[in-house]
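Subject: Sigma-54-dependent Fis family transcriptional regulator

B.,
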Amino acid sequence: MTDSPRQKILFIDDIPSFCEEVVSNLRSEQHDAQSMLSPLEAIPKIVRGEFDLVITTLVIAEMGGFEIIRRIRGAGCRVPIIIITAFGTDQSAIEAARLGVADYLTKPVEKNELIARVRRVLADHAPREPERPKSLARMISGDWQMGAIFEKVKTIAPSDTRVLILGETGSGKQLLAHAIHQQSRRSQEPFVEVNCAAIPANLLESELFGHEEGAFTGASKRRIGRFEAAGKGTIFLDEIGELSFELQSKLLHVLDSGKFTRVGGSNDMFSQARLVSATNRDLMKEVEAGRFRSDLYYRLNVISIELPPLRDRPGDIGILAQHFINQFAPEGQPPPTFTPSAVEAMRQYNWPGNVRELQNFAEQLAVLHQAPRIEATDLPARVLHGKPAPKAASQPAPSERLPFREARDQFEKDYLLKAIQEAGGNMAEGARLAGMDRGQFYRLAKRHGLTSNADE
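Prediction pasted inline below.
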């Protein structure tokens, strides 16, 4: 068994004799220590992740200790820092704490005190051996909340009970539905998915239940619907909160009786599929607002699973990012790995697009990044600086509040237009930025008059 590499310590001060003293004391205790006289030369090395601990004095002619720390933190580097000063005041101690300094020492510094503080800080910030991530079908996680969800899925999957999956867009609802199917006795039967938000309302009934020849203009031949195609397998209705009230009634009839009729037909068909549904809406609030049938809600919500957003399980960010990097790395090329400072910077970002946004981010890095390690400084500005999700447009005053449908349409149009503008007019890139399916994005954009003939 080989010894683990010694942790590297950098001491910054512009007095050579003091640098020599501190480094000598650290090396006498088998620490891998070195010093630098210039903060401007030291900061790039620190940000690149070359050191496990930084010790700096507070007063340096070239750049003060607090400014050194601000620049290090501003670059997204979370390396632990100890400050040594001969001018300790309550105000400087408060500022050190505000900047996240690991420890604060005043001169003169005794050797034993210095060594004890260094050991404690290194121990507090030493990389912990991560727990082996749990997996379920194509999902992995080291988070306890997800672990509990995985166990719940294993319990309910063998039954025929309906499941309602709740969670923000991009949080993994589709993958969880796949996992339920794969863990069930129906795993060898079809898994049929329908995105209720991606299909125009006037076509959704035909999509779900099929149609007979001549049922409507363009129906040149019989077509089976998704319920029929699912057979004895699983049908997954994503974004079920988008169903019209009329279709909600027809779905309720299917759930109550198992019967449905093709559009334009008269013969009853029988569904034997298990229903799993998902939404990013609060269906109970939709029920209270009169937009969703309460009886359908209770039929769907036999067992519910709520997926936490990625920002609520920061321990998964590094695990998933590396998983996606490994997945997308060009064939024959070893995937780059994230440094601890890069992982820490990613954990500070709120990931409004959840796992889907992280996946797109990792794919971009896997293709474009050439170095073997991904440093914090290699991350996009929005991630590195933890920029929050774009703020929604200001709300109208109550006296001028729009009706719900008009307000939703206006929001959709503004949101899509901003995404298209940020993508330079590229519809596919706009869909990626919005975390949406290309077809769904294009149909919404076309409905709001945001497409050109060139996009057809």
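The domain at 398-455 is CATH 1.10.10 (Arc Repressor Mutant, subunit A).

T.
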